[in-house]
Amino acid sequence: MRFRHEVFLLFLFMILSVSILASGCSPKISCEEPNVLIGSSCCLDVNHDGRCDSATQMKEPDKHIPEVIDKPTHRINEPLPEELFAKKFESDWNKRNFNALYTKFSDDLQRKWSREEFNFMLKRLQVLKGIESVSFKGMIGNKAEFIVTLKDDKERTAGEVVKEGDEFKIRPFYIFDDLDINNICSDDECFSSFAKMSGNKQLCESAGELKDSCLEHFSDKNTLSKEIDYCTAIKDFYSKVDCLDNLAVKEKNIEPCWHNEYDEQIYGCMGLVAAIDDDPKLCKEYASSRGFPATRLQNAYCIMGFVSKTLNNSACSLIDRRDDVVLGAMAENCDNLRFS
Questions:
Q1: Is the pLDDT at 58 greater than 50, yes or no?
Q2: Position 31 confidence tier, pLDDT thresholds 50, 70, 90
Q3: 195: left (phi over 0), alpha (psi -120 to 50) or beta
Q4: Could you read off the pLDDT of 274-293 as tens digits, one per residue?
Q5: How far apart are the C-alpha atoms of 248 and 306, rounded to whole Å?
Q6: If we measure between CA atoms, which residue out of 60, 62, 44 comes closest to residue 52?
Q7: Strand stretches in the chain, DSSP E
Q8: Neighbour order of strands in the sheet with 167-170
Q9: How far, CA to CA in Å, does 41 sit from each of 24, 29, 51?
Q10: b/e per residue, 317-329, with b = 16+ CB within 10 A?
Q11: Distances (CA, A) of 181 to 186, 191, 197
Q12: Which 3 state secondary structure label does DSSP give 131?
């Protein structure tokens, strides 16, 4: 019995010895920060929470270390300044706002034609070409590409956008570099009207049966012409507008109105002249007096000028506001003019 007990103790001693030897021979695992020992292997523990970081956590930057990022001057989805300029050019062209369009052309066109000459010729050329709408498609290098929709066709064209001083301008292209009164006028009235508007007496020679009346205009207009020149020489914008408005009303003549710079002032001035006869329907006649129907917006400017003078709000109904937010707002403002 004693022998069995000794054998059992010897067997237990041998098992313990083997376990001790085995544990002494096993290599110890150590993990360098920011790794940590989890189980029998190392894993990344950047946030020191005693757990392995997930793939998402591993991508997060250390919140204690400020992240310095150079912000780009232009965002990927943000339009370039040249694109914004081209979109405004498209808008003015579609609205037939040729006075505003004129200001967007480079100096070489503005040196060649005055604002009034440009407006006169472009209105006619638009009709001759049958242009219905224009769509800006994007920039190709430094050129703005447009799709021009005609009555029966579409044409692709592009104009070079350049920087003149602090402003973007576009060089003449497409129909704009074809502006020439001899290519546009095909009747006596056209030559006579352009001669009177531009002050080019020589064009009366091309006015056919209207030649004599065209020449008489130049002999009789000296007084009015000098007064218009006086107004247009005024530097302050609003003082110049007031001078032309007062002259037009005094002479009951819309000629001074045409020498304003923008549609709002040109056609608003005509509304003041129409107010002399208390007839808002004259707006349509005055605004179309150079051979082409006025746009709805141009006619609205004239009605606004008429109502501002007469406070006759019934004329506001002549503003064609359908499907146009701007004209709708103008009609509402027109109704409120007598309360201002």
A1: no
A2: confident
A3: alpha
A4: 999 999 999 999 988 887 78
A5: 13
A6: 44
A7: 35-38, 41-44, 131-140, 143-150, 154-164, 167-170
A8: 131-140, 143-150, 154-164, 167-170
A9: 19, 8, 12
A10: ebbebeeeeebee
A11: 9, 8, 12
A12: strand
Q: Three-state SS for 134?
A: strand
DSSP state of 314: G
pLDDT tens, position by position, 163-173? 998 999 999 99
Give domain 81-182's CATH superfamily.
Answer: NTF2-like; domain 1 (3.10.450.100)
How far, in Å, CA of 257 to CA of 244, rounded?
Answer: 6
**pLDDT level of residue 79 (50, 70, 90 thresholds):** confident
Q: 177 Cβ partners below 8 Å, 6+ apart?
A: none
Is residue 56 very low, low, confident or very high in pLDDT (cuts 50, 70, 90)? Answer: very low
Distance CA 200, CA 311 (A): 39
Cis peptide before 61 (omega within 30 of 0): no
SS3 105: strand
Model confidence over 180-199: pLDDT tens digits? Answer: 898 899 899 999 989 988 88
Over its C-alpha atoms, the chain yields an Rg (Å, rounded) of 40
Specify burial of residue 268 (Cβ count, 10 A radius: 0-12, 13-18, 19+). Answer: buried
Angle at 110 between CA 240 and CA 243, to 5 degrees: 10
3-state secondary structure of 45: coil
Q: Is residue 50 packed enough to be buried (19+ CB in 10 Å), middle (13-18) or exposed (0-12)?
A: exposed
DSSP string, 240-289: HHHHHHHHHHHHT-SGGGGGSSSHHHHHHHHHHHHHHTT-TTHHHHHHTT
| Other CB atoms within 10 Å distance of the CB of residue 239 | 11
d(CA 144, CA 159) in angstroms, rounded, equals 5
Q: Residues 228, 247: contact at Cβ < 8 Å?
A: yes
Do residues 319 and 327 lie in contact, with contact meaning Cβ atoms separated by under 8 Å? yes
Dump pLDDT digits (tens) for 99-117.
Answer: 889 999 999 898 888 888 8
Domain ranges of the chain: 31-60, 81-182, 227-339
